[in-house]
Design a protein that fits this description.
Distance between the termini: 62 Å
Structural class: alpha+beta
CATH superfamily: Cyclophilin-like
Number of helices: 5
Strand content: 25-35%
CATH class: Mainly Beta
Order of helices and strands: HHEEEHEEEEEEEEEEHEEHE
CATH topology: Cyclophilin
Number of strands: 16
Helix content: 10-25%
């Protein structure tokens, strides 16, 4: 009798377990389950740290893969402490936040190229990109080269103007910008700028700050009154900082199984909230997930 009751109880438990609905997998769950091997540490020489006078920190990952000359200029400007005391001077709604020298008269330090090459695109050869299977409005194909969102056509590749991407402000051609003026995209991806401006990286931390500043009242969102300018206390490379002041970041490898599963699911969400999966995704909506690493 006891054996019969035990068997019946086991059957009921098993039946109950089988009756429990299997919860659909979510993109967040894939990120949470991703093994450490599917993330890559960001080189501290590629992390630009902007600290504001009134508090707040912006962290940018530079891309020497697509803009080596401009990235070198930005590193040189940071090491020379050239950005210190400059300003956020332009905030245009649904477009960009820009910072630099409003006067345009601050002399560049030695070693900074005044006319870098036009690093608006590069040869696609050698990139080994992860190509997305969905159509794009602006290019033959899109995908990722390492952590960078890219588009390509006719043997050329370029980074795409997605939310949070960072570019170099410039004057009319042949000027390409030195890196003394930088901007971050704070609105819908202005992809028409692709191949017209040198993109140099992506904001990893501080987009909430960059997108929250008051919009400028002047042309193109420029601040028109000195009191509106937002002061920059200092700009450093992470490699120049020590202790708890130095941030560490990891970005999901776009060649990893986790990224493929995550991007596929982002295009075909079937969890409790989504009724009609899109069946497609835009390159700008699946920038590689990132996380802060432990302080070394």
């Amino acid at each position: 009798m006891k054996r019969t009751l035990f068997a019946l109880a086991a059957t009921l438990v098993a039946t109950s377990a089988l009756a429990q609905p299997v919860r659909p997998l979510t993109p967040g769950a894939i990120i949470a389950r991703a093994p450490s091997a599917d993330f890559q540490a960001v080189d501290p020489d590629d992390l630009l740290i902007i600290d504001l006078f009134k508090g707040g920190r912006i962290v940018i990952q530079l891309s020497p893969e697509f803009a080596p000359a401009h990235a070198a200029n930005i590193r040189a400007l940071a090491r020379a402490q050239w950005y210190d005391g400059l300003f956020i001077e332009r905030v245009q709604d649904d477009y960009v936040t820009q910072w630099g020298d409003p006067s345009g008269k601050k002399a560049l330090p030695k070693g900074v190229a005044e006319r870098p090459p036009a690093e608006y695109d590069r040869a696609a050869e050698g990139l080994k990109p992860y190509i997305l299977p969905w159509k794009d409005t602006y290019a033959e194909q899109t995908g990722f080269a390492g952590p960078w969102p890219m588009a390509s056509a006719d043997g050329r590749a370029w980074m795409t103007h997605c939310y949070g991407m960072v570019g170099v402000g410039r004057d009319l051609s042949p000027d390409t910008g030195t890196g003394g003026e930088l901007y971050a995209v704070i609105g819908h991806a202005p992809r028409a700028l692709d191949r017209n401006i040198a993109l140099v990286g992506r904001v990893l931390e501080g987009m909430d700050i960059l997108a929250s500043f008051p919009r400028g009242e002047g042309e193109l969102g420029m601040y028109t009154k000195p009191a509106q300018f937002i002061s920059i206390r200092r700009v450093r490379l992470a490699s120049e900082l020590t202790g708890p002041d130095r941030p560490y970041f990891e970005v999901m490898k776009t060649a990893s199984p986790s990224f493929k599963a995550w991007s596929d699911l982002k295009a075909n969400r079937k969890d409790d909230f989504f009724i009609h999966p899109a069946g497609a995704v835009d390159v700008c909506t699946i920038l590689p997930p990132l996380r802060k690493a432990r302080t070394k």
